[in-house]
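User: Show me an example of a complex going from sequences to structure tokens.

Assistant: Sure. Here are the input components:
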Amino acid sequence: MDTLNPSEQRDLQRLAAMMIPASAEYGVPGADDPAIFADIIRSLGRDLPSARAALAALAEGGPFADLAAEKAEALAASLRTTPDLLVLHRLVLLCYYRDDRVMRSLGQEPRPPFPKGHVVEQGDWSLLDPVRARPPIWRPA
Amino acid sequence: MADPVDVLIIGAGASGAAVAWSLADTRMRILCLEQGGWMKPSEYPSTGRDWEARQFGDFHISPNVRKLPADYPINDDNSPIKIVNFNAVGGSTILYAGHFPRVHPSDFRVRSLDGVADDWPIDYATLEPFFAENDRMMGVSGLAGDPAYPAKSSPMPPLPLGKSGARLGAAMNRLGWHWWPSDSTLATQDYEGRARCINLAHCLYGCAQGAKASTDITYWPEALRAGVELRTHCRVREITLNEHGMAKGVVYYDENGVEQFQAAEVVIVAANGVGTPRLLLNSVSGKFPNGLANSSGQVGRNLMLHPYAQTYGYVDEPLDGNHGPPLCLWSHEFYETDPSRDFVRGYIFQMSRGVGALTEAITSSAAGRLPWGADHHRVYRNLLNHRIGMAAICEDLPEAHNRVTLDPVLKDGNGIPAPRIDYTLSENSRRMLAHGRARALDILREAGATNCDGELPIAYAGWHLLGTARMGDDPDNSVVNSWGRSHDVRNLFIVDGSLFVTSGGVNPTSTIQALALYVADSMKQRLATLFD
């Protein structure tokens, strides 16, 4: 299966960590966490060409992974709104926000919606009383 | 060549299913050709951990992104609103939220009441029994007593208000504005073999529970039991004519890509407001060099898409998030024309709960609310499950230059010319969108929301494909008559959203299906004189 080469993967892992770093305060891994990063690589699919293009732009002056922090941040910021980097960012987010540890930290059960579903309270139906009291608002025709 | 059939229906979506079911009791031989296949609910996104991610892939709302074998490309580069649809048995009812308002009585008399566009050749009372029949067949949940409508009832009680609905409802009460629980095709009780809604909350992308009515699980099982034949993965290229100028049948490609011909006594087109004009325009002949049934020149014109003004904000407590059906309430406060406003006609608000974790992250990142870096986690926790919002669905008035034509270059997988969309927002629509945004902000502020944002118009919201083969009494400016029969070809009928003379300001599926049932009933009433 076609995928990113080792150099591209190293650059992407650096970029993922810049997008979503680990946080001790919230007890969550960063997007460069090995399990999350492996999911990102597995999930490239139809986004592979955009990912490659975005990483190529980041690596124009040399490997992005080797840049000093300030330089790397400035370069990523300058390209952040380019279409290819937006696609790559979306890919990072979609793998990060389905990681079990991340979902638990958000109070979300790490599971698909089906078959358990969720519970929604009925709410206070007496709120409708003033609307029930209104005369018709549709126009006869 | 296959045996001729009495009735050939093209498209197995919202309208094709309804017309097939209704005509089945005639005991005629009825065949439906559908370019897609049957969906497997066990494979819908909500069954897997990648349930949100698939909306960017095989369940993307745009066929141009999704690119499944059943899809055909659509050149919508020249439109600020992109076409969205789904191609399968069930059509776009697979990929809709189940919001199910009817149009209003005034929508049929737009010219008479407001001096714009045209009146329909039928009225609300004509469709009323078919609205009710369709509500029963689709299984609608709702609450009687809404002052926005003539009296009506629903087979099931409404969706729960939840925390989000209660907060929005209380705000609307303080403003003195109309709101009501939406009519919805999400079953709130076990209904006709369908299981009740358990709040999977990913309604738009197919319902694994079967609580959302899509026609593959409502009309089609009954139609098939009644003897209708449904042939899947069959894409119709053109409708052909006989020497008398009547429809003879269709040329289509079967699932192996082999060209076939199917003869029929009656042809019914149910391919939606883009697919139907595309098919008619691809069906050229000596008699109809500009497309079948197009002596009026109206085929493909008057495309209406319903511009959406989406607005949302964030409150200071977690609400329902994405743990309930996304759409829960509507407001018709701004639906009818008000001379004090700077536009005619109006819109509804469809009010929504929150979005999923991934969708919140992606939309907030794109909007610049959610930063990269260390502060990402803090900001995100103040967004997730704190969102409430609404969309104004603005009535789109018919304009001849908004149209579907054939793209000179783009073709589908069978080599059939693809549709091209040319569409611009009118000044009336722009003003209505701005009004919808301003009133939405009023509501959200009253509900205690801050950090408000949105999209105006929503680009990927061309769900409602209307007006491109409109009905009317005058053959010079309409494509079909008041009961769906082509003015030009007397055994050709159209039953989908193409028929709409005006769009109303509501989601149209309820009205599309009521129209399909009405056309079918009209045909049954006239079987002996159908072609006179």
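The lines above are the inputs; the final block is the predicted structure for all two components together. Chain B touches chain A through 71 residues (CB under 8 Å).
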